[in-house]
Amino acid sequence: MEDRQIFIGVIGGGDVSPRVAGVAEAVGREIARRGAVLVCGGLGGVMEAACRGAAAEGGLTIGILPGEDRRAANPYVKIPIATGLGYARNLAVVRSCQAVIAVDGSYGTLSEIAFALQAGTPVIGLNTWELSKKGRAGSGIIAAAGPADAVAKAIELIDT
Amino acid sequence: MEDRQIFIGVIGGGDVSPRVAGVAEAVGREIARRGAVLVCGGLGGVMEAACRGAAAEGGLTIGILPGEDRRAANPYVKIPIATGLGYARNLAVVRSCQAVIAVDGSYGTLSEIAFALQAGTPVIGLNTWELSKKGRAGSGIIAAAGPADAVAKAIELIDT
Amino acid sequence: MEDRQIFIGVIGGGDVSPRVAGVAEAVGREIARRGAVLVCGGLGGVMEAACRGAAAEGGLTIGILPGEDRRAANPYVKIPIATGLGYARNLAVVRSCQAVIAVDGSYGTLSEIAFALQAGTPVIGLNTWELSKKGRAGSGIIAAAGPADAVAKAIELIDT
Amino acid sequence: MEDRQIFIGVIGGGDVSPRVAGVAEAVGREIARRGAVLVCGGLGGVMEAACRGAAAEGGLTIGILPGEDRRAANPYVKIPIATGLGYARNLAVVRSCQAVIAVDGSYGTLSEIAFALQAGTPVIGLNTWELSKKGRAGSGIIAAAGPADAVAKAIELIDT
Question: Which of A78, C10, C119, D89 is the most exposed place for a label (fewest CB within 10 A)?
Answer without folding.
Answer: C119
